[in-house]
Amino acid sequence: MTFIVRHCWYSCSPESSIKSIFGESIRVWNLLARKSRYWVKGLTSANVEKCTPLIVASKEGHFDVVEYLVTTCKCNVEQTGHIDIDNNTIEDVTPLWSAAACGHLIIVKFLIERGADPDHTTSSNSTPLRSVCFVGHYDVVKFLIEKEADLEIANK
């Protein structure tokens, strides 16, 4: 299992490797359906190069992959990892933070419905609300405020 994850992740950047892995969703789902739950959970929760498939899928806006990883594979919606946005590495982001920063409202709504904490902070104390305010996706800002995201949490 570790070899498969490392092979997929090291062959190219995390974002493009996830696209190549999950771009053929049906083929991947058929493969995963034949494996044990333990094996699937290990693969889909693997933190390779400080990122996970769920975080990358959330960042890239792949709702079908996010839904599959959370619903079928039982991935933890509070897992953390590192992502690059505009040549800056953001450490300890959650899938919700990634989706919010990139303006993927449908994924933000789904993750909140599945128990994601709208006030979970990164290593620099950034929240999903702060990230989306910085970028300016009004619909995501409005939704997070409606879900009572804390307006007072400041970055470090």
UniProtKB/TrEMBL annotation:
<feature type="repeat" description="ANK">
    <location>
        <begin position="91"/>
        <end position="123"/>
    </location>
</feature>
<keyword id="KW-0677">Repeat</keyword>
<dbReference type="Pfam" id="PF00023">
    <property type="entry name" value="Ank"/>
</dbReference>
<dbReference type="InterPro" id="IPR002110">
    <property type="entry name" value="Ankyrin_rpt"/>
</dbReference>
<keyword id="KW-0040">ANK repeat</keyword>
<feature type="repeat" description="ANK">
    <location>
        <begin position="124"/>
        <end position="156"/>
    </location>
</feature>
<dbReference type="InterPro" id="IPR036770">
    <property type="entry name" value="Ankyrin_rpt-contain_sf"/>
</dbReference>
<dbReference type="Pfam" id="PF12796">
    <property type="entry name" value="Ank_2"/>
</dbReference>
<protein>
    <submittedName>
        <fullName>Uncharacterized protein</fullName>
    </submittedName>
</protein>
